[in-house]
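<instruction>
Derive structure tokens from the sequence

<record> Sequence and structure tokens follow
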Amino acid sequence: MTGGERDAEDLHALGRLSGSMPVASHRPVAGGTILIVRRIASRAARWALAPLLARQESFNLEVASRLEALRSAAPAVEADSKGLELLSKRLEVVHESLHREIVGREAGVLRTLRDELELKTSQAVASVVASATADAVAGGQPTVAGLGDHLYREFVSRFRGSEAEIRERFTLYTELFAEAGPVLDLGCGRGEFLEALRERGVPASGVDRNAEMAEQCVARGLAVTRGDVLEQLASVPVGSLGGVFSAQVLEHLEPAGVQTFVALAARALRPGGLLVAETVNVESLAALTKNYFADWTHQTPIGPRSLAFLVERCGFPDPEIRYLSPIPDDAKLRIVPADPDLPTSTRDYLEAINRNFILLNALLFGPQDFALIARKPRS
């Protein structure tokens, strides 16, 4: 018999109640009488207490049985507890794994939705801008660039000069391109340069984004299309042009557009081809304030040295800079004449003042425009 079985037997033995009670007396004389009375009383008590004793014994045995059942079930309960603990840990691992997977999938879905939203937003913005630009051009209203076609044509006529004045200024360029056809005039405007080349028998074509100016050129029999100058230049076959010309165009481009312009010109020109680009001389304060900032469609002020540097890096060696449109002397600071009869100290003082005036005139009232002239190497 195991220890557990003995404990169970002992527990059940303790739970059993006996109805017999020992009856005795230590008195020698009256002891017999006392024993008779006690036996009668004991029998009467047993008869009266029998139901209570039976119920108590039944209760004791039930408690003992249940304690034995709990003791027997303890190992199973302990095993179940360990199993539940292990199962709980496994569930935690599965939960974490599912959480990571779900979060990862949700993040991927969110990234996809974000990318699609950004793409659709950019497409929608581009569509709106394109539609607004087309409507503005068709209706003669201000475009995204800042001025409507009709208004900008009037602006050019007032601030840049008449067609006769512009043709006179372009005489220098027609001589340079006398044997450089075919020539592409980028930003040809009203077509003054194309007409001058036609008179000299030089084949040439042009492009301008202003619809009214392009139509005006076509009406005069000039080969002009309406469009973007960089897109037009990029569409030209490699090495197919003898000359690329632009007047007052570079300042309308973004800095990256200026670089693209020069690189595309180098690509389009054949060996020995000529590049001429005229723009505002921003090294002259008068030209910067009165000419450059007068046109709010201007984007990039570029000086002669900066443009020459860029042209050299794109394969045009030794570019030439020619300064144009000088400001009249009567609009500059006047030099003070030094009378020879003046004392030496006074003459020296006036000479110092005049030198300063010369420096100031160069800074404040320098030439209003400059032209960069560069030729592509022949080999």
Confidence is low (pLDDT under 50) at residues 124-146. Residues 31-139 form the longest helix (109 residues). The domain at 149-375 is CATH 3.40.50.150 (Rossmann fold).
